[in-house]
């Protein structure tokens, strides 16, 4: 088992971007410390829609797919010992 935190935080014209990104990161770290299964960080933090598109099947691949592969690898590590 594993959890995957997927989402996208798009920078706006206020400082909320930094607050939200830090809160999400801290939350995923906290989950990894308290849960018996891994939580994979699959949250995009981007400046604009183009960057989001490039990371969800565009020139930089698909970050959601990468997060799923990371979850599978973490599960395999747990059960390979």
What does this structure look like?
The protein has 81 residues and is an alpha+beta fold. The chain is 53% helix and 26% strand. It has three helices and four strands, in the order βαβαββα. The protein has helices at 16-34, 49-55, 63-79; strands at residues 3-10, 39-46, 56-58, 61-62. It has a two-stranded parallel ribbon with strand order 1-2. The chain has a two-stranded antiparallel ribbon with strand order 3-4.
Summarize the topology:
Layout lengths: L2 E8 L5 H19 L4 E8 L2 H7 E3 L2 E2 H17 L2
Parallel strand pairs: 1-2
Antiparallel strand pairs: 3-4
- Secondary structure class reads alpha+beta
DSSP strand tally: 4
Characterize the main sheet: 2 strands, parallel
Order of helices and strands: EHEHEEH
Shape: flat
Assembly context of the chains: single chain
> If strands are numbered along the chain, what order do they take across the biggest sheet?
1-2
Tally of helical runs:
3
Strand residue content: 25-35%
The span between the termini is: 15 Å
Unreliably modeled segments: none
Q: Taking Cα atoms only, what radius of gyration do you get, to the nearest Å?
A: 14 Å
- Helical residues, percent: 40-55%
Mean pLDDT: 94
Features:
81 residues, alpha+beta, two-stranded parallel sheet, flat
Task: Give a short synopsis of this structure.
The protein is of the alpha+beta class.
């Amino acid at each position: 088992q594993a959890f995957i935190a997927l989402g996208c935080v798009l920078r706006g014209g206020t400082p909320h971007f930094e607050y939200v990104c830090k809160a999400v990161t801290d939350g995923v770290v906290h989950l990894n410390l308290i849960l018996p299964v891994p939580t994979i960080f699959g949250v995009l933090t981007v400046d604009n829609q183009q960057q989001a598109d490039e990371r969800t099947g565009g020139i930089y691949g698909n970050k959601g797919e990468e997060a799923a592969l990371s979850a599978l690898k973490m599960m395999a590590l747990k059960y390979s010992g």
